[in-house]
Design goal:
By secondary structure, this protein is an alpha+beta fold. Helix content is 29%, strand content 32%. This is GNAT family N-acetyltransferase.
Amino acid sequence: MPAKPDPILIEVPETIETERLLLAAPRPGIGPAMAVAIAESLGALSPWMPWAQQAPSFEDSEAVARRLCADFIARRDLTYQIYDRAAEGRRLLGGTGLHRLDWEVRRFEIGYWIRSSAQGHGFVSEAVMALTRMAFEQLQARRVEIRMDDVNLRSRAVAERCGFELEGILRRDSLTPAGELRNTCVYARLGL
């Protein structure tokens, strides 16, 4: 049986460009921009994201950014920040990434969030499509999933626009950030 490759040796692009966006791996120094984007968007994020229950300090966000950077290098989690290429200084719009990595099966889960002032412009769908392409073409993904609370209609619409198929709903499988039982939709696309 051939030896399994060490994930840390797998080549993963640190940037992905689309027509309007730059997806960039986390790096030290982005904490303040992350804190501002999260604080702006707490109302939209807090029902879904456990990490968005209060406005983070610049220091807290910088610590998170550095942990995300370390996880990217170690191939434990592949987070990208979403930047608007046209905006002066490439404004931080949100985040996306491949999570719950299974390098042996080549199964990945996409997550995403967008700051409130950038909603409704198709940025999340554009980022998800670029990340999906990269997962299948460069990482030889066999399966890419998107999971969300079944009542998160905006997130479900992104998955459907990006060609992911609803495979099922896991009933009462987890808790919302408020501690209530929730159902989780599982969308997927399959590779060769």
